[in-house]
Design goal:
mainly alpha; 59% helix; globular
Length: 179
C-alpha cells in the first residue's frame, strides 16, 4: 500500500468513526448484503423484525448489479431514467430504515455498493428519495438539511475507488494478564 493510499484509507476510517453506532451497524450489514460477503440474517438479525428488514433489503439489493451496469458514462438525459429510477428506489428503502440519517453516511455506503463512478448521481438520488412522502416529515427535514451546498453543487467528483470497507468485528473476551 502506498503512503497516499494509507492516508486515504485512514481518512475513510475516520469518517466512518464519526457515524452513530446504529449507522455503522447498518452500513456493515448493507455491505454484507450488497457485496454478498456473509449471511446477513445469521450475522445481523436480532429479532423477527430485523430478519424481515434484512430479507426486504436483500430483495431490493438484487438490483445493484443492474444499477452498476446502467451507470451512465455522461449526463445525457436518455440514460437517466433506466439508471436513476432503480437507484432512487433502493435509496428510498435505505433511507426509510432510519439508520442513514445524513448524506455523508449515504454517500459512504453507496460509493462502496456501486463504486466511485456513482458519485455524481448520489445527490440527485439522495434528495429525490429523501423528499418522498413515505418518510416522516422530521426525517425528511433532517436528511435534506444534511447535504451541504458543496455536495449538492459540486462541479467534479473524484473517481478514486474507496479503500476501506468496514466489516463485522467479533468481540474478543479479555482476560487478566498474569502478573
Amino acid at each position: 500500500m502506498k503512503p497516499a493510499n494509507g492516508a486515504m484509507t485512514l481518512s475513510e476510517i475516520k469518517e466512518f468513526a464519526t457515524f452513530a453506532s446504529a449507522t455503522q451497524r447498518y452500513v456493515r450489514r448493507s455491505l454484507d448484503i450488497g457485496l454478498d460477503r456473509a449471511d446477513a440474517i445469521e450475522r445481523w438479525s436480532r429479532d423477527g423484525v430485523e430478519t424481515a428488514s434484512i430479507r426486504a433489503q436483500a430483495r431490493l439489493y438484487v438490483r445493484l448489479p443492474a444499477i452498476r451496469a446502467l451507470l451512465p458514462d455522461d449526463t445525457g438525459l436518455e440514460a437517466i431514467e433506466p439508471f436513476l429510477a432503480p437507484l432512487m428506489t433502493v435509496t428510498a428503502f435505505d433511507l426509510g430504515q432510519g439508520r442513514l440519517t445524513t448524506f455523508a453516511a449515504y454517500r459512504f455506503l453507496y460509493e462502496r455498493l456501486i463504486g466511485a463512478e456513482v458519485r455524481p448521481w448520489l445527490p440527485a438520488a439522495f434528495c429525490s428519495a429523501a423528499a418522498l412522502p413515505h418518510l416522516h416529515p422530521d426525517l425528511r427535514r433532517k436528511l435534506l438539511q444534511s447535504i451541504s451546498e458543496a455536495a449538492a453543487t459540486a462541479s467534479g467528483w473524484s473517481n478514486r475507488q474507496p479503500a476501506f470497507y468496514p466489516k463485522w468485528v467479533e468481540k474478543v473476551e479479555t482476560t487478566a494478564l498474569p502478573n
